[in-house]
Specification:
Structural class: mainly alpha
Oligomer: single chain
Strand content: 5-15%
Number of helices: 4
Distance between the termini: 11 Å
Helix content: 55-70%
Largest sheet: 2 strands, antiparallel
Length: 76
């Protein structure tokens, strides 16, 4: 319904608003910006130049270990 494949969802967290999709650390920052205080501040910080590259690297490290903490999403 959102136009995402199972592979996209298994590869990275997805954030879809108004037909626009972002993934990985960008999706985390977007979700944080839509949460209750103080989380929007973290979302803003993650989006700052210089911090974005650090956030991307951190996301990749966590994502590489994600399968240890969560099962593969169900089919369908």
């Amino acid at each position: 319904a959102l136009g995402l494949t199972r592979e996209q969802c298994a590869d990275a967290v997805q954030w879809v608003v108004d037909g626009r999709t972002v993934s990985a650390h960008v999706a985390v920052a977007a979700a944080l910006r839509h949460a209750r205080m103080p989380w929007p501040l973290a979302g803003i910080v993650i989006s700052l130049p210089g911090i974005r590259s650090v956030a991307a690297a951190a996301y990749r490290k966590v994502a590489a270990r994600r399968r240890c903490a969560a099962p593969t999403p169900p089919a369908g």
